Amino acid sequence: MKAFQEFTKGIIKENPVFVMALGLCPTLAVSTSVQNAIGMGAAATFVLVCSNIFISLLKNLIPSKVRIPCFILVIASFVTIVDMTMEAYVPPLHKSLGIFIPLIVVNCIILGRAEAFASKNGVFKSVLDGLGMGLGFMLAIMVIASIREILGTGTLLNIHLLPASYKPMIVAILPPGAFITIGLLMGLLNIVQNKKKSKAN
User: Cα separation of 124 and 126, whole Å?
Assistant: First the structure.
């Protein structure tokens, strides 16, 4: 049961985007389409899981005074792997995500989990934490991207969902649309959680 809770906490209860408001920079920038959201989410999840594993294994060997530089070095190694792999096998997606792939190195979700969790727990728990937080980030960015893409273009993954007469809300795929969408979703999640708490009491 504890393992399940460790895995699921990052999906809803401690969702990095909607609850903890972390990683908002890439979320705002790449959530113009679901394809971009899946690519960024998958890249961040891979880096998060792999860095959590290595940091958990090396935690007793890393001096506390240099732990942050060491964490960044581990994270940067996996980001380089992701960056080169995407450039080789999915160049259009790599070009679309642009600078936000290398910026995963300083993503506060990944560095935060390394510092707050992986450096204090075993490998198994760190893997569950990384998977849960990574999937939570991916799901959040996909939900935001789906809303923005449907409203902004009338399509989802290049499939026309809305009738030809629909006039796209261009603001949805512009930066203000990202802020409005995230704000509304955060508010909705807070309302749902508050209702659950009031019922429990």
Answer: 5
Give burial (CB, 10 Å; 0-12/13-18/19+) of 127: buried
Residue 171 in any domain: the answer is no
SS3 state at 159: strand
Most confident of 7-11, 49-53, 194-198: 49-53
Per the listing, tokens 């401690």 go with 14
Residue 141: HSE in the Cβ half-sphere, 13 Å Cα cutoff: 31
How many structural domains comprise the chain?
1
Rounded-to-integer distance, Cα 36 and Cα 167, Å: 23
pTM of the predicted structure, to 2 decimals: 0.90
* Cα angle 75-20-201, degrees, rounded to a multiple of 5: 140
End-to-end CA distance of the chain: 24
Confidence of residue 193 (pLDDT cuts 50, 70, 90): confident
Three-class SS state of 119: coil
The verdict on residue 151 lying in a domain is no
Helix, strand or coil, per DSSP, at residue 101? coil
Residue 181 in any domain: the answer is: no
